[in-house]
From TrEMBL, chains A, B:
<dbReference type="GO" id="GO:0003677">
    <property type="term" value="F:DNA binding"/>
</dbReference>
<keyword id="KW-0233">DNA recombination</keyword>
<dbReference type="GO" id="GO:0006281">
    <property type="term" value="P:DNA repair"/>
</dbReference>
<feature type="domain" description="Toprim">
    <location>
        <begin position="81"/>
        <end position="176"/>
    </location>
</feature>
<dbReference type="Pfam" id="PF02132">
    <property type="entry name" value="RecR_ZnF"/>
</dbReference>
<dbReference type="InterPro" id="IPR000093">
    <property type="entry name" value="DNA_Rcmb_RecR"/>
</dbReference>
<keyword id="KW-0863">Zinc-finger</keyword>
<keyword id="KW-0479">Metal-binding</keyword>
<protein>
    <recommendedName>
        <fullName>Recombination protein RecR</fullName>
    </recommendedName>
</protein>
<dbReference type="GO" id="GO:0006310">
    <property type="term" value="P:DNA recombination"/>
</dbReference>
<dbReference type="Pfam" id="PF21175">
    <property type="entry name" value="RecR_C"/>
</dbReference>
<keyword id="KW-0234">DNA repair</keyword>
<keyword id="KW-0227">DNA damage</keyword>
<dbReference type="GO" id="GO:0008270">
    <property type="term" value="F:zinc ion binding"/>
</dbReference>
<feature type="zinc finger region" description="C4-type">
    <location>
        <begin position="58"/>
        <end position="73"/>
    </location>
</feature>
<dbReference type="Pfam" id="PF21176">
    <property type="entry name" value="RecR_HhH"/>
</dbReference>
<comment type="function">
    <text>May play a role in DNA repair. It seems to be involved in an RecBC-independent recombinational process of DNA repair. It may act with RecF and RecO.</text>
</comment>
Length: 205, 205
């Protein structure tokens, strides 16, 4: 594409580095900014700079945070004995949105994936095992995605902590609420039958 | 959505001001930036600032430019007597990509559209009529999108300049009626410039 302005070309090129944003979309976004007040672009770029340079990761759960300890870890009345192990920050937000969980989280920062060159030492696993060793945790809930990498990561952590006396669980896999049985995949449907729960329990929420 | 960081929330909110970018996409983009080196976010925000604050519009054709006159207006060997009238900057880029046009452009900055409150005086029409009056232009090519607003704009300009002895043409209707210029393929768009027809003929249908 021919740009009549080097400044425009540079902005489009930088913008199209972002995932899922091609040159055409980037151009559309930059031209949109040119039609908006200057303050709006200033605020956007300041906000991006601020989050990139100043954001911290919680020293306890590795969730994104403005302080050394995140809001969830410092909220009183949460159950300090139950830890939900998740892949990344978006999973924390998704579970928090349900209001169904009152324990704490542990963000691994990914899954073990040799194909992508990610081993156990690239993830926040050591600090999780250390927490378990300290003896204050009663239950670990594995909430990783149910892929080969997720299962591998679950199992790797499980092996490290099985000698300690804590409960381990994984989130229930089954048919989504509201979904038709006939469209569900066989593995999910099969698992939802094997792991059926007492009917009384399903009435609780 | 609950954010565990005010900095993250602010960045996501600013990002989701952009057209076609919702909160979820904005979050994905910001989290991607957090995984990349700080320099990358710095370069993006500097590039956006620079384009917003420093970019100029060509004093002659109103195309986006780094100088007072744009690269196209200052290129030698272009045919100064032929002016292609377009809606916006993306149309200049699209036509330049075809390499089928060696004249100059005139960017109107939109179309007459009473529904959106855009009248003739909101567009760069006066400066175009002034150019025609000065007598150096041999031909005007209307290359607005073939919508009602585009046709209205063509006709408005045509009425202002028909007393002067210049050729007027519109790009050939090789492009489907209702389609936007920027999405046309290069061959169709290129051919439509080569096969332009007298403006009077375009009024017949």
């Amino acid at each position: 594409m021919e740009y009549s302005s080097k400044l425009l070309e540079r902005a489009v090129n930088e913008m199209s580095q972002l995932p899922g944003i091609g040159k055409r979309t980037a151009l559309r976004l930059v031209l949109h900014m040119l039609r908006q007040p200057k303050e709006q672009t200033l605020m956007l770029s300041e906000a991006l700079q601020a989050v990139r340079n100043e954001v911290k990761f919680c020293k306890s759960c590795h969730n994104i945070s403005d302080q050394d300890l995140c809001e969830i870890c410092t909220t009183p009345n949460r159950d300090l004995g139950v830890i939900c192990v998740v892949e990344d920050i978006k999973d924390v937000m998704a579970i928090e949105n349900t209001s169904s969980f009152k324990g704490l989280y542990h963000v691994l920062g990914g899954k073990i994936s040799p194909m992508d060159g990610i081993g156990p030492h690239d993830l926040n696993i050591e600090s999780l095992v250390k927490k378990v060793k300290e003896g204050t945790i009663k239950e670990l809930i594995f909430a990783l995605s149910s892929t080969m990498e997720g299962d591998t990561t679950n199992f790797y952590i499980y092996k490290q902590i099985k000698e300690y006396e804590i409960l381990t669980s994984t989130i229930a896999r089954g048919i989504s609420v509201g979904d038709e049985l006939e469209y569900a995949d066989e593995i999910t449907l099969g698992r939802s039958i094997v792991n059926r729960i007492p009917f009384e329990n399903s009435l609780k929420h």
